[in-house]
Amino acid sequence: DTGVSQDPRHKITKRGQNVTFRCDPISEHNRLYWYRQTLGQGPEFLTYFQNEAQLEKSRLLSDRFSAERPKGSFSTLEIQRTEQGDSAMYLCASTRGGLTYEQYFGPGTRLTVT
Amino acid sequence: RKEVEQDPGPFNVPEGATVAFNCTYSNSASQSFFWYRQDCRKEPKLLMSVYSSGNEDGRFTAQLNRASQYISLLIRDSKLSDSATYLCVVNSGSSASKIIFGSGTRLSIRP
Predict the structure, then answer these.
(1) How does pLDDT run across A81-105, given as a tens digit for each residue?
(2) Which of A42, A43, A56 is facing B98, going by the closest CB pair?
């Protein structure tokens, strides 16, 4: 399968715990995006990377959230001290780069904070 | 004001009908426009890009109106399988690579 993959697909955690999600983009894509989606809403932009550089972060991304893409390939999104309001679907997407902005999404990681 | 706004619907139309959605965007510097489709509990998938001259793909037609800052999607001869949420997507303009989604318009096709 050469699409975008995300791991885990589901995560249930208790409030206050830390969680980390992984995204593997399509191999030749150099831009990688993270979004958060709650029921009835469209994906909300969190951050994106051009290769290993994190170029923009949303104000939604509080200091409890951090994302990395250390070698310009896979990316991780960590949430520290989770809160119930963090419960959502976390989506990763990648694009080829240059002037191409068509995004290909992974299946998402559904986070439930109890 | 949200950067991208859509009528949430739901639009409930009979099979075979023509249905149209509009989406407005706030940043006049935006250059890239797309429609995505999202099925329940699935990830969004690219439906079509929207070009300045408009474009058509089978039963689907997308148009861009820069003066009024909106894009539209027209679905002709709707099928039951068209039932989904349709997401309007725009690059933010301030950063060409920042891609913003609307909240989506729900479409339900009834037999």
Answers:
(1) 999 999 999 999 999 877 777 899 9
(2) A56
